[in-house]
Amino acid sequence: MRIPSVCQRERVTRVGTVRARQRDRTRRALLDEARRLFAERGYAAVGLADVVAAAGVTKGALYHHFDGKADLFRAVLAEVQEEVGDRVAASAEAEADPWDRLTAGCAAFLDVTAAPGVQRIMLLDGPAVLGWHTWRTMDEAASARHLHEALADLVARGVLADQPVAPLARLLSGAMNEAALWLADSADPGDLGDTQRALERLLASLRHS
Prior knowledge:
Largest sheet: none
Distance between the termini: 81 Å
Low-confidence stretches: none
Helix content: over 70%
Structural class: mainly alpha
Shape: globular
Radius of gyration: 22 Å
Number of strands: 0
């Protein structure tokens, strides 16, 4: 059996590396263009032909990375949810006080999800395309868990009254999602500030007296 030379092995490695980079670039282009189109038009109005044309690749290349339109959307949604979760976590972690971490994280959530593109992909099309259970599972993994953790910490510290955290987290999450949907359709730039202050008052009412 002929053993490949060092040069042959290095050439094979280089070719493999180049192909891997090309695959990564193709996948990145598909995700970027799909996200832009989904944000601008909504899921129902975007076809795979639109995505591959915008990304400059073939439909075969798309199917190499994704099973279809819903799978592509799921990958886009996962990125959006991860970005929202990262923003929420970064804002919360910048605060030293546990209560300030909660309020800063909630404020960051409203701020980032009020953007029309995020609102359309994450809050409107996400549950409709993937189903509530799948969407909720992804949301829990990305940003909702931060809210749950912050509330659990405050209950443990006695800042919030002793109570089950799961229903409280879902109630607050639902309220903030609804507020984000409203803000995305609002033409009044002052509505975000008003909503932030209303949320602060709502959270303050939960503090243990």
